[in-house]
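## Example record

The block below lists the input lines for one assembly entry, exactly as stored, with component labels intact.
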Amino acid sequence: MLFSKPMNQLQRLLLSARRVSSSPITPPPSCLLHKRLFSTSDTDASAASLPSSHQTVQTLESKASSKSRNTSSTTSLNQDELAKFSAIADTWWHSEGPFKPLHLMNPTRLAFIRSTLCRHFSKDPSSARPFKGLRFIDVGCGGGLLSEPLARMGATVTGVDAVDKNVKIARLHADMDPVTSTIEYQCTTAEKLVDEGRTFDAVLALEVIEHVANPAEFCKSLSALTIPNGATLLSTINRSMRAYASAIVAAEYILRWLPKGTHQWSSFLTPEEVTMILQRASIDVKEMAGFVFNPITGRWLLSDDISVNFIAYGTKRKDLESI
Amino acid sequence: MNRVLVRKLSSNVCETKILRRTCSTDVTHKVSTSGSNESFAKKNSTDDGPQHDIAIVGGGMVGIALAASLASKPLTKHLNVAIIDNNPLLGRKNIIEKGNPPDPRVSTVTPATISFLKDTGAWKYIEEQRHAYFDKMQVWDYSGLGYTRYNANDVHQDVLGCVVENKVLQSSQLSCVQESDLQKTIYPARLNAMDMLPSSSLTGLGEVPSTTDLFMRGRLAKLELSDGNSVYAKLVVGADGSKSQVRELAGIKTTGWNYSQNAIICTVEHTVENYTAWQRFLPNGPIALLPIGDKFSNIVWTMDPKEASDRKSMNEADFIKAVNDALDSGYGPHPETTSSRDSLSWLTGNVTISTKERFKTPPKVVRLSSERMMFPLSLRHAKDYVSKRVALVGDSAHTVHPLAGQGVNLGFADACALSKAIAEGIALGTDIGEANLLKRYEAERKPANMAMMAVLDGIQKMYSVDFGPLNALRAAAFHGAHYISPLKKRIISYASGEQALPLFS
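Predicted structure tokens for the full assembly:
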């Protein structure tokens, strides 16, 4: 498909056989996934940050580091591409489609988020809309899988994603229900919001940080978005042997849940590293939990096992450090 | 009439769409409900119908139980519920006169159902009315080759179940609902038509879309009632019995067959109190005697249709004689009480109390206290319990033979599971008409219901054939259940609803 430099090393690897046509526009990497669905060539253009779809924006001056990603600029994609994108825009919300693992994991993550944030904000967990009046931000919202349930729980939600297409899909889907149509979606990045000076009561970045070029900087941005004593929730995959076996080998190659190349094992973070970089960003990690998949029931369960998927909840320290 | 036909046609179109659609929340859909669009254009109603979260069609025991269960949970008690039932007495504070003899329509509630009713807060109202706990049960057949006695103490419980009149069950749940904070509206009408459109975007509708707009964009289901009103709801629950309108309008297919048997039910009186539930399998079907309290008992006698209409119309004295005969020594001898063999104690395990109990004869019936009612029996099971924005509970999802008194208990378990699924969905921020939520309910109840139906149907078939070797097999089954205590405990536990599946549970 259409690439311009700087190109991701990963993309280079996967698409080395492809003919690169010139185009001034860099497509959002997630389009590579959808390209895969239509292309006749055998390469799976799935360097896309599927299912997470988030990336930090690279300024034009930044060096093409091995993990740097492409920016998503305004599109002037040709009509064919637009047609393809809009045709598969549904797959975000297809519970049996390529995002199936996320759909399966969603109720479990929401259970943890709900109980943790109810405790944090001292809200009644048996209320139907406990987060009324609180402002949340979902960084790397994708199609809005997390933003919509949070809005139904009463929160004022802002969803951001660096991939414009995802934001469009999220907007479309959220507009189908009056409760979720109040969600504010923006195609932007955490850094840009920090520059705008926005702050939120709770900042959620689920399944984002493993796709980010500079995790430490990303965490600093998340921290800057959080008000003092606010909550930050981060979920990712552990850089462990078990995670390699399950999240990469099993999920991408054997079960084919995720397209190959979705995750890079080397960019996973261990819980200790996450705790450390959050601490340096003035966020104290208070709780951590793991998600375990039970293949018999087909459900994800919350557990103490943080060796593969884990989620961390932290609170922002009152004394702000300058970023 | 034509409009009803058009609506039916349009709902058929909708049904086929629903059947073909997979249960996923698709963003885009092929909209081919042109038929229904026309019919709505014809019906020029300018004002919006009322909008509810859940519309429960059918105000029977199970429908009201669902409402009561929702009312008792903190996560769901703020919901807005509509109850649609044709019965004009529903909703009126009906005071049941205690002096009257019991109504022949009764149900046996299992301990699992009793705890559900306690959770919803209805049990305290039931205890104020007539109800009868029983702690012993005896089952035998006409061949006289074996019998089984069950005792609540076998499983260290106080009761095996409780027999309550259906109207008591219904009115006590309704009292719970009326006293709760649940916003409820009762529509005394019948459901005529139901429609749902595919989901589409609400962009361009402004801040607060009207109810009609929400319906046209697939967020609500529209129910048209027989009195001309339209009701809109996010979720439609079909609790309207074995001939469910909701199930038919949603296009959910059923399998099943009619048993060539009718059941006669009536209330009878004894001279002594009865604390045991009795069931004797006769060649044409079982006869059951259930205590209701105050020396009354309820008879459920299953037989073929010709006999049933004869017995319904014969005079009282003859009927009483027939009943006593059926319960006692008609059709065959009494089984003998054989002492438990000590040599087989390794097989029988810890011997339960009831193993040592002798065979007893049921108390004699002295008077008939109510009219005799007759019902045809059938087995019916819906292929799916859920569809887009529709869920089925109770008899609309499954109809079973009354031989084990399980029917309404399965229905109450459905209501419990559905309200639990709705509460979980709300806790996790899902839209209550969403497919995943409803599928969780189906995944919980369908296997359990199907297992129970298989067991009951198997028993019914096994006892409807009079064939020497089969009789011996049944006798062996009676003996096995009576003497092998672990098996007996399992049977009691399964029939009491403590265990959802007969095996592996």
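DSSP finds 15 helices and 20 strands in chain B. The longest strand of chain B covers residues 254-269.
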